[in-house]
Amino acid sequence: MVNQRRPDGSLRHLITLDGLARPELEKLLQRAQGYVCLPGSQPRMNQRLAGITIGNLFTEPSTRTRVSFELAGRRLGAEVVNLEVQLSSQMKGETMLDTIRTLESLHFDMFVIRDSQAGVVAHVADNVAAHVSVLSAGEAHVSHPTQGLLDALTVLQHKGERFDRLTLAVVGDIRHSRVARSAYEAFTGLGIGELRLIAPEGLMPQPGEFPRGVRFSTPEDGLQGCDIVMMLRIQKERMQAAAIPDGGDYFQHFGLDRRRLQLAKPDAIVMHPQPMNRGIEIDDEVADGRQSVIRDQVRNGVAVRMAVLEQVARPRPLRA
Ligand code: NCD
């Protein structure tokens, strides 16, 4: 298990939500809620991270996560540098750790890392200088902690604090999904009433994973009466070509359309971490419909990342 805490117990890195106690999760969500910026209003800014330099290192594609980590840092007064890994020396064979060491010499204080290989983020965290923090922006199929938090914040805003009264259905490629794993940690940590896993057999997690999840082999069985429907993208990049399901066939059996959504509660909300494959896991009518909170998830991403950056940051003396 990753040690992401300082000796005094405070959070130094954020690599997984596993091990975060409920009050700690609630505190982060509360702090994030204070940073939520409603459409049409001006974002809240402050200087709490003034003097801090943050490096975004993404070796996998990203739109929302990278942009929102960048905005989060800037809105707290930090300096943010995006490293285009395709253009960096990693393409010449430099290891991630050598890149990190270089950036440490340039006085970086925090690294936000997305990587397709499990364990890389924790390996960096174990090897950085004592004042440096490392935040996961998505690690292979394993973990995407800020996504888990922004999903929880979105549910909190729409359904209130009584998570114990809610049923969450996660639908799709759960086996390869870091979003599903971090959602599981966030929502079980916050005491969700029921958590259902709906997937074709080949996309179900391995036995033993998601121990509290109740497994269903069709949306027709699993969506009945649920409060939250979380759709997932098929993670083609983490599959052998032969295992990738045919899009049309997949939509027919697992795609979310109005007819299937009607099985959930009338006020159920629909979530998707994006990028969406419209017509494969979800249709336009539902993705853009009145029950969709997908755009709220994006908006909450900045607020949650501000809360996390602020939480891990430690004031330190000015450098000479
Ligand atoms: C997801 C990711 O990269 O894990 N996107 C995101 O961060 N919002 C989901 C995905 O790629 O399907």
Structural class: alpha/beta
What overall geometry do the principal axes of the alpha carbons give? globular
Strand content: 5-15%
**Which value, in Å, is the CA radius of gyration?**
19 Å
Number of separate domains: 2
CATH fold type of the largest domain: Rossmann fold
CATH homologous superfamily assignment of the largest domain:
Aspartate/ornithine carbamoyltransferase
Fraction of residues in helix: 25-40%
CATH class of the largest domain: Alpha Beta
Q: Widest sheet: strand order?
A: 7-6-5-8-9
Q: What's the overall average pLDDT, rounded?
A: 94
Report the span from N to C terminus: 37 Å
CATH architecture of the largest domain: 3-Layer(aba) Sandwich
Task: Spell the H/E element sequence.
Answer: HEHEHEHEHEHEEHEHHEHH
Low-confidence stretches: none
What's the quick description here?
The protein has helices at residues 22-33, 64-75, 96-105, 120-127, 145-159, 178-189, 219-222, 247-254, 258-261, 284-287, 294-312; strands at residues 53-58, 79-84, 110-115, 133-139, 167-171, 194-198, 214-216, 228-231, 269-271. It has 320 residues and is α/β, with parallel strands linked by helices.
